[in-house]
Amino acid sequence: MRDTDRALVQAASAVAKLRCRSAAHTLATAARTADGRVVSAVNVVHPTAGACPEVVALGTAVTQGVGELETMVTVGTAAGPWSPPATPAADSWATCSRRCA
Q1: Residues 6+ positions from 15 with CB-CB distance below 8 Å
Q2: Per DSSP, what are the bridge partners of residue 76?
Q3: Could you give the residue ranges of the DSSP H alpha helices within 20-72?
């Protein structure tokens, strides 16, 4: 594993530890942009709808003017159900949005 990838896992783990403290937020994602910035997000669990952390991270990246993501990792917590990431990191933005929506 490259140092940059290890740092991304650590970033996602730090967000999970800080923000995933209830059953409403059980997964955290960190994504590295093509220029090296890191965008992080958590999932939203709700009885009527929800959002995977990958899609939340994509929305956050777009809001911040990011045009391309290089790598994305997702980590889970013991607070709730853990599911595999809904989107492989290599997927395009459009495919990711369709799969998680």
Answers
A1: 28, 29, 30, 40, 41, 42
A2: 27
A3: 53-63
DSSP structure class, residue 22: B
CATH class (in words) of the domain with range 3-100:
alpha beta
Domain borders along the chain are: 3-100
| 60-91 pLDDT, tens digit each | 999 999 988 999 999 987 655 555 555 444 34
Query: Looking at beta carbons, which pairs linking 9-15 to residues 24 or more positions away fall under 8 Å?
Result: 9/73, 9/75, 11/38, 11/40, 12/40, 12/73, 12/74, 12/75, 13/75, 15/40, 15/41, 15/42
pLDDT 10s digits, 38-58: 999 999 988 888 899 999 999
Active site residue 54: yes
Q: Which of 30, 31, 54, 86 is catalytic?
A: 54
What's CA 45's distance to the chain center, in Å? 14
pTM of the model: 0.75
